[in-house]
Write a structure and sequence with these properties.
Layout: H1 32-39, H2 44-67, H3 84-106
Helix pairs in contact: 2-3
């Protein structure tokens, strides 16, 4: 018979409060998300670089397999066939990670282009002398002359 133990799941104490509960206490010059990442000792850039290196090594391994430098063997002792689809998928993942790292190197730019429309001021022609006022339709009646 196996014993079952009552396990209590507790959340670790995160400085500044629970990340799921909004609090006003924030460390100096750090946002809430940066504070949590620092507490968890997680650096996204370091992780991206390590993933890039792993994918690069795997891509190089597939390249060596493709040219015949190495020949992997399956569990039953037979030689495995090279898969160009798997190699291309690893290469695509490598490119995605490199694009993310590229944004850190050269700064983030907006993904979409926002076109700002400037309103052109109306063209105004003054037909009266300084001090004189000129008005149309002073009575407030609709006139057919200006339609």
């Amino acid at each position: 018979m196996s014993e079952t133990k009552n396990l209590q799941v507790t959340q670790p104490h995160i400085p500044g409060g629970d990340p799921l509960v909004s609090t006003k206490k924030v460390l100096k010059n750090l946002s809430k998300s940066q504070e949590i990442l620092e507490y968890l000792e997680f650096d996204p850039i370091v992780e991206l670089v390590s993933k890039y290196k792993e994918l690069e090594a795997l891509c190089n391994w597939h390249e060596r397999w493709r040219i015949g430098e190495i020949q992997p063997i399956s569990a039953n002792g037979r030689a495995r066939n090279y898969s160009p689809t798997a190699h291309a998928e690893i290469y695509d993942r490598l490119l995605k990670v490199s694009e993310q790292l590229l944004r850190y190197k050269y700064g983030r730019i907006p993904e979409t282009l926002e076109i700002q429309h400037k309103e052109i001021p109306p063209f105004v022609v003054n037909l009266s002398r300084e001090g004189d006022t000129y008005s149309l339709n002073e009575k407030g009646e609709a006139s057919d002359d200006y339609i």
